[in-house]
Design brief:
The chain is mostly beta strands.
Length: 316
């Protein structure tokens, strides 16, 4: 294959990284892994901010064009409840699902027992209502669907098993009330052997409804002699029965390549928690953390992603 045959589905913004620790109004260690949503005509990012203590909180950054002139609002921060078991060691990696005029924020809390899945909600990103712990440790990488299925909520999440062989698969669970969860099942298992997603997989951005079903962007981890590599792949779920996986990419679509993705606090990592579909209905902006150090953005075409998945899918 010649260089002219190489297809890159995502185009990195030439101004990357768009947010770094140096942009913050106070001293922090790193900023990364933001949730993303369009709100009041602007792009809102709920950014994971890691202080020099090692504890993370979530801070709002907003921009009129979604690329430049970011404003960080310290009055619109979701701070961890350090006096609670669920958030004793901070909060991180949010995903936002919009439902009518409410935003449901699923995020990882770090408890004494390990990472767990928490829920908060807001209408204005100024005041937040804690809705409790959805999944106990060890669990993370979670998001809700923006609609109910036969009266039930569906949650994608990533528990970790430790016996007989450590594994981290993507699971789907169901709830009538966002408090009591059941009917748990593996949705996307980690592959084995030399695959790019052989060690563990986890949800990246919240599911996006398309004309062909729910498009899923997920991260896969491969362990190498030099350490782990985090890359992104695609899957497609049935629109009415999201427990049915219609297709899953055999190859990764986005991986660490730029210097700011290859080197940082954690090398070789691209980690997306949010994407926004623009008004043309096809352009997608993916906001992601690079090397657990900075926030970046890449652009792609929804129709191109679906077409690529159709050509590079392993039918489930």
């Amino acid at each position: 294959m010649s260089a002219s045959d190489r297809v890159e589905l995502f185009t990195r913004y030439e101004g990357n990284p768009i947010l770094t620790a140096e942009h913050w109004p106070h001293t922090v260690n790193a900023v990364f892994n933001p949730a993303a949503v369009a709100h009041d005509g602007e792009t809102y990012l709920l950014v994971r901010v890691e202080d020099r203590s090692g504890i993370s909180h979530l801070c709002l950054a907003k921009s009129a064009d979604g690329l430049t002139d970011w404003t960080m609002d310290s009055d619109r921060t979701l701070q961890p409840l350090l006096d609670t078991d669920a958030e004793r060691f901070g909060i991180e990696d949010p995903r936002i699902t919009k439902l009518d005029d409410e935003y449901l924020i699923v995020y990882t809390g770090y408890s004494q027992g390990g990472p767990l899945v928490c829920l908060a909600s807001t209408t204005d990103f100024r005041t937040y209502e804690r809705r409790g712990v959805l999944m106990p440790p060890e669990d993370k990488d979670a998001a809700l669907f923006p609609r109910r299925f036969e009266g039930r909520w569906a949650l994608i999440h990533r528990p970790v098993s430790v016996t007989p062989h450590p594994a981290a698969h993507i699971w789907l669970s169901w709830s009538p009330d966002l408090r009591h969860w059941g009917d748990h099942s593996i949705l996307i298992p980690a592959r084995e052997g030399g695959y790019w997603d052989a060690h563990k997989v986890g949800l990246s951005t919240p599911p996006l409804l398309t004309g062909e079903g729910w498009l899923i962007l997920y991260h896969g981890v491969r362990r190498t002699a030099a350490g782990s590599i985090y890359r992104l792949g695609l899957a497609l779920l049935d629109a009415d029965r999201p427990e049915i996986v219609l297709a899953r990419s055999s190859e990764w679509v986005f991986g660490p390549d730029a210097p700011y993705e290859r080197m940082g606090d954690v090398d070789q990592v691209v980690f997306a928690c949010g994407w926004i579909l623009l008004e043309d209905g096809d352009t997608l902006r993916m906001y992601y953390g690079a090397a657990d150090t900075s926030v970046c953005v890449a652009t792609t075409s929804l129709s191109a992603l679906l077409a690529w998945l159709g050509r590079h899918a392993e039918s489930e």
